[in-house]
TrEMBL record:
This is Acetyltransferase. Keywords: Transferase. InterPro entries: Acyl_CoA_acyltransferase, GNAT_dom. The keyword Phosphoprotein does not apply. Residues 9-177 form the N-acetyltransferase domain. The keyword Lipid metabolism does not apply. One of its GO terms (molecular function) is acyltransferase activity, transferring groups other than amino-acyl groups.
Amino acid sequence: MIIYESGLLKVRKLEKKDNIRLVKWLSEPSVLKFDEGRDKPFDLDKVNKVFYSSEDDEVRCIVEYDNKAIGYIQFYKLDSKTSMFYGYKTELIYGTDQFIGESNYWNKGIGTLLVTSMINFLVENKKADYVVMDPQARNVRAISCYEKCGLKKVKILPKHELHEGEYHDCWLMEYRK
């Protein structure tokens, strides 16, 4: 099922057949450097458990560019506990997580197109007041991309994410409608 399209970019719901792609991407050290961790590569069992048996409210999607699957994005409405932790009160807030798994599609503006179009989708179709992300503070490429898309750094989240055996600071970044 297609969630949205923007030019050559298409975001569609994750299908069972995508599990092999996820294994490929999530066992690649260059992808795992900032996502999941190089010390925790995925195999088929782990992909099936994490992406296909979860009972949460995340909408999991495959990113296609020019009809080729190149990455993953998920979006979700923040629960009240997470919203309060981040400092929000009653606003409608969505979060996203994404990566481009095919490295030959990096540095071509596709990530910027993906994030911008997802923000537009969430604001227009889900009536989001805010869209937030929490990249690791050391992930300069992702932060630069998100800033190009209109997100602003709000506050540092000290030791927020366990990654490769260490807790890392993350930035809370927001797009405000």
